[in-house]
Amino acid sequence: MEAKINAILEKALSAIPNAKTKNDVANISAEIMGPNGELTALMKLIPTLDKEQKPVAGKLINKAKSQIEPLIAQAYERIENGRMAEALGERPDITLPNIDAPRGTIHPLTQTIRRICDIFKKAGFTVAEASDLETEWYCFDALNTPADHPARDAQDTLFMPRDAKVANVSKHGDELYLLRSHTSTVQIRAMLKEGAPIKILSPGRAFRRDTVDATHSANFHQIECLYIDKNVRLTDLKAALDYLFKNLFGKSAKTRLRPSFFPFTEPSFEVDFMSSDLGKLSNKWIEIMGCGLVDPNVLKNVGIDPEEYSGYAFGLGVERVAMLMHSIDDIRHFYANDVRFLNQFGGK
Fold first, then answer.
1. Rounded distance, CA 300 to CA 3, Å?
2. 21 plus 140 within the same structural domain
């Protein structure tokens, strides 16, 4: 009995791994464990054995079955996997790019920032960046903003707790950390590092405690422009503004300056522009940003002699420009992550 069981087991161990089809596996399984199979025939002989031999024979048959049944299951799985692999064809190289995948687009705000930076790079400006998190001195004091200025109130600016510690943002003294309310902070750090002359653009995010609506956002983008050199005059500022807006809105664009006040520039101006290529807003004066000549106190704060150097600065809201360029009527579209909106801006 034991010899017969071992012979059947050896037959199964040899035949099952070499089976080519599911029918081959089924035939081998039937020959061994089917109703008329060899193991089944041996099981039918157990009642005829001596009492002492019955449990031994049963144990040997069950052990053989426990070895054969997993082999049959593995053979079925192997053949099925092979059939599926053949149906799928050659395995693709997953490292290759998916040419059928839908392509994303560059966000309209990023497009606008890149376009403005490209315009000024042609005029010799470089791009400077710094952290979104700043300190009170760099955001206000160094920019000649007095302690009682409304912009420094906690109702307008997002201050960090007094015990906040930030390893990668240096302080001037013991001032508070805050989320910068403009990118003008970059010009302070850049002038302290590089001195004068300097020509930089500072694109980036800014944060204020604004109630979100169609024209306001607590998070927005700004580009600060700074030019410091010897004998920089108001006419240089006006020429830079004309150059910018003609490149953004066409050759018909015009700019005008209206006297205003900002702590960090003197004199200071509000900038209006007009263009014949703005649809319903064509040929109408539109207020767009603030500008001016850098206040001498700001230059002193960064160690630049205001008797030797002068310069201009202006801050431009990126969302405002993008809305005018694309006739967008709600600033919230920029942050909604609506693919239907974003797919309209397929440019580079």
1. 104
2. no
Residue 80 lies in a domain: yes
CA distance 189 to 108: 28
Asked whether the beta carbons of 1 and 42 are under 8 A apart, the reply is yes
SS3 118: helix
- Residue 218 inside a domain? The answer is yes
Q: Is residue 320 assigned to a domain?
A: yes
| Residue 147, both tokens | 């302690």
Q: Backbone phi, then psi, for 101, in 5-degree steps?
A: -70, 140
**Claim to verify: residue 128 and residue 207 sit in the same structural domain:** yes
Q: Cβ neighbours of residue 260 under 8 Å, at least 6 residues apart?
A: 268, 269, 270, 290, 292
- H-helix or E-strand containing 185? helix 184-194
For residue 316, count CB atoms less than 10 angstroms from its CB and return exposed for 0-12, middle for 13-18, buried for 19 or more: buried
* CA separation for the pair 193, 198 (Å, rounded): 11
Residue 347, pLDDT score: 54
Question: What is the domain range of residue 223?
Answer: 108-342
Q: Report how far residue 32's alpha carbon sits from residue 11's, in angstroms, rounded to the nearest whole number.
A: 9
Amino acid at 310: S
Name the residue with higher pLDDT: 298 or 100.
Answer: 298
Domain count, the chain: 2
SS3 letters for 239-306?
Answer: HHHHHHHHHHHCCCCEEEEEEEEECCEEEEEEEEEECCCCHHHCCCCEEEEEEEEECHHHHHHCCCCC
Residue 185 near residue 139 (C-beta atoms within 8 A): yes
Two tokens at 318?
């990126």
Rg (CA), the chain: 39
SS3 label, residue 323 = helix
Q: For residue range 236-271, what is the model confidence (pLDDT) as tens digits?
A: 999 999 999 999 999 999 999 999 999 999 999 999
The tokens for 9 are 């087991």
pTM, whole model, 2 decimals?
0.69
